[in-house]
Design a protein that fits this description.
about 20% strand; two-stranded antiparallel sheet; alpha+beta
């Protein structure tokens, strides 16, 4: 989702508040992906970011939790103009819908 800058008219991303509209696991996965917006992030890195504060290191089957969270948040993010893509061996990425 974008808006126009009042000074120069350039597109400005409005991604900061999206995570607040998602359930906790989806929000954690989105934030982990958004740190490298537009770049692929491996599942292990997403897990370490999403559950960095968890003393146990996150869920035992983190890859499955991430996959499930991505599937559930795709339609919500699409409404905000953001696409979640996956690519085997590379991981997931979030980008603006073009």
């Amino acid at each position: 989702m974008t808006a126009k800058c009042p000074c120069c008219g350039a597109n400005i991303g409005l991604r900061d508040n999206i995570a607040s509209d998602l359930p906790p696991t989806q929000a954690a996965v989105y934030r982990a992906l958004a740190k490298d917006f537009g770049q692929y992030v491996k599942t292990q890195r997403i897990a370490s970011r999403a559950w960095a504060d968890d003393p146990d290191g996150g869920p035992e089957f983190a890859a499955m939790c991430i996959s499930s969270a991505v599937q559930r948040m795709r339609p919500k993010l699409a409404k905000a103009g953001i696409v979640v893509e996956s690519k085997q061996w590379l991981g997931y990425r979030v980008r603006d819908a073009a």
